[in-house]
Amino acid sequence: MTASGVRVRIAPSPTGEPHVGTAYIALFNYLFAKKHGGEFILRIEDTDATRSTPEFEKKVLDALKWCGLKWSEGPDIGGPYGPYRQSDRKHIYGEYVEKIVSAGHGFRCFCTPERLEKMREAQRAANLPPKYDGRCLNLSAEEVTSRMAAGESTVVRMKIPVEGSCRFTDGVYGEVEIPWDAVDMQVLLKADGMPTYHMANVVDDHLMKITHVARGEEWLASVPKHILIYRYLGLEPPVFMHLSLMRNADKSKLSKRKNPTSISYYTALGYIPEALMNFLGLFFVQIAEGEELMTMDELAEKFDPENLSKAGAIFDIQKLDWLNGRWIREKLSQEEFQHRVLQWAMENDRLRAGLALAQSRISKLGELPDLTGFLFKSDLNLDPSAFVKIKSPPEEILEILNTVQPDLEKILEWNVESIEAELRAVADRMGKKLKVVVAPLFVAVSGSSRSLPLFDSMAILGRAVVRQRLKLASQAVASLVGPKN
C-alpha cells in the first residue's frame, strides 16, 4: 500500500475500439492518484467472453500508453494483487457467490432467455420498467437441487430489499437516494460460470484494495447493487465518484454514431497525446484565461477533485484543434516536430504499407501524393459530385453506404481478409455484384475512383477512420437523393 493508502483503477472492457471517454475517466484516476501520492492500476474486465478479444485488449493498452498514462500494476506488468484480467480470475469469484447464496442473499434462477424476453415485452407493453419478476425467488432447496441435478441451466441472482431506499454519499453528487424498488435482482453468476460485471467488479475492487472508484455517471444507478454485494459479503465499500458524461455541443451523449469517439481516430488524424490529455484535463481543473496550455504535471498540480462540475463535459473539437495547434507550434522543437511527423506517418505501418501498394501503380515518384495522400488526410472534403460518375443511382449508393457501415462494426479482427469477407457477404445479402458495392466505397474511403486496393486501404486507415469517412460519404450522397416525401 502507498503512504496515503489511495488506490484507484481504470477497468476497461476490451470489446471495441478504445473510446475517448475511457481516456477521460483514466486521466481523472491517474491525476487523483498523483494528487494523493497513491497508486493507479489497470484492470481488464473481460467477463463478456463473446465480445472481448485479445486484439481489442492490445488496442486498449496501446491507446492508454499513447495517452501518456502509466500504471503501477496491470495485465502487462503484473503486481501484488494479480492477475489483472478477469478471465484469468474466473476461479476466484465462485466462493464469494456461494457465500451470498448460503447466507440467503442470493438465489438460483432457471428462467430461460426466451421466458425473460417475453417477461420484458409484457412489462414494456404495460409501461413498466423491465426487471426480473421474481419467479424463481422462492423455489425450495429440494427443487433447486433436483433441477440442477437434471442439468438445467441456471444463473445466480441477488435478492433486493422490498422496502426503503439505498442512501450513499457520492464524491461528485453528494447525498444520493435510490429506492430499492428501482433496483433489479441482478444476475451475479452467469450460466457459463463467469461472474457478471457487477459481481466481479466488487470482488476485484476489494481484493485489489481499491479505495476510490471514479467512473462515468451512467454507473450511478448501479451503486445500490454494488453496495448490497459489499454488505452481503461483510465488506467495506470504497468511496464512489461519478463523473459527468462527455457530451457533444448539443448536449447529446458522445457516441460513435454521431461523432468520432475512438482514440485511434484522433491518433490517425495527427493529434498529439499531450494535447488530447491537456484538453480532457481541463474538465478537472480551475484555471484563468490564458492558462489553458498545460502539461500532465501542471494538470496534476491544479487538479481539484473536490470542485468538479456536474454539468456535462463538452467535447468541443474546435477547442481540441486549437490546443493541438498550440502544442505543435509552441511546445515542440523542430527536431521533435520532425520526429513526431515521421512517427505519425509510420503509425499502423501506414507509410510502408501505402508505398508497397503504390509501387506497381506509378510511373514516377511525383505521382505518389495524389495516389496515397488519402491515407494521411484529416478530411477528404468529399463533394457530392465525387459520386456522380458511379454507374449506380444515388439511391442505390446511399443504400450501400448505409448497409455497409453497421456491418463493418461486426468485424472482430480488422484486417484485409476480414474486410473482404464481410463486404462479399454484404454484396450477397443485398443481391448485388461485389463491384457494385465497392465502387462507392472507393470514393468514400479515398476520395477518388482511382486509388489503391480498397480492402488494403481500409485495413491501413483503421476502423475508426473508415467509419467516419463512410458516415460523411452518406451525408454527401443523401444531398443528391433529396428529402424523403
Automatic annotation (TrEMBL):
Annotated motif 'HIGH' region, positions: 12-22
A Pfam family reported for this protein in Swiss-Prot or TrEMBL: tRNA-synt_1c
GO molecular function, one term: ATP binding
Enzyme class: ligase
Reactions performed catalytically: tRNA(Glu) + L-glutamate + ATP = L-glutamyl-tRNA(Glu) + AMP + diphosphate
Glutamyl/glutaminyl-tRNA synthetase class Ib catalytic domain segment(s): 6-322
Locus of motif 'KMSKS' region: 253-257
Keywords associated with the record: Aminoacyl-tRNA synthetase, ATP-binding, Cytoplasm, Ligase, Nucleotide-binding, Protein biosynthesis
EC identifiers of the protein: 6.1.1.17
Biological-process GO terms, alphabetical: glutamyl-tRNA aminoacylation
Subcellular location: Cytoplasm
Span of domain Aminoacyl-tRNA synthetase class I anticodon-binding: 337-472
Residues the record lists as binding ATP: 256
GO cellular component, one term: cytosol
Family under the similarity heading: Belongs to the class-I aminoacyl-tRNA synthetase family. Glutamate--tRNA ligase type 1 subfamily.
UniProt function note: Catalyzes the attachment of glutamate to tRNA(Glu) in a two-step reaction: glutamate is first activated by ATP to form Glu-AMP and then transferred to the acceptor end of tRNA(Glu).
Subunit structure as annotated in this protein's UniProt entry: Monomer.
Identification of the protein by name: Glutamate--tRNA ligase
